[in-house]
Amino acid sequence: MNISSNTIYTEKITPSKKYKYAACIIFILVIITYSLFIVKKDALHVDEVLSFVISTYNSYGFEKNFDEGVLYSSDALKKHLFGYEDSIYDTINDIVSLRENNRDSPHTNFYYSLLRLSLIGSQFSGIDTLMIRAGILNICISIITFLLLYKLSFVIFTTDTARITCLILAFFSPAAIANVLFYRPYQLQTLFFVISIFLFYTITKKINNTTAKIEYNAHTIISYSFIISLIILTGYFSLLYIFIFFISLIYISYIKNIKWLKIITFISAITILFIFIIYPRFFLGLTSYRASESLFKTISLTPIENIQQSLSYLYKLVTSNFLCISGVLSVILIYVLYKLKSFSLFWVTIVTAAVFFSSAALIMAPYKTLRYIMPIFPIYALIIAKVCDIEGKRGVISCMVILTFFISTMFSTPIENYKSQPTSLPRHGTVIVAEKNTWKLSSLIPFLEGEYSFKNSCPKASWYSSNAAEKVFFIDEQCLTAEVKDTLSLEGRQGYYTIAKRKDSSAE
Question: Which of 15, 85, 290, 448 is most buried by a 10 A CB count?
Answer without folding.
Answer: 448
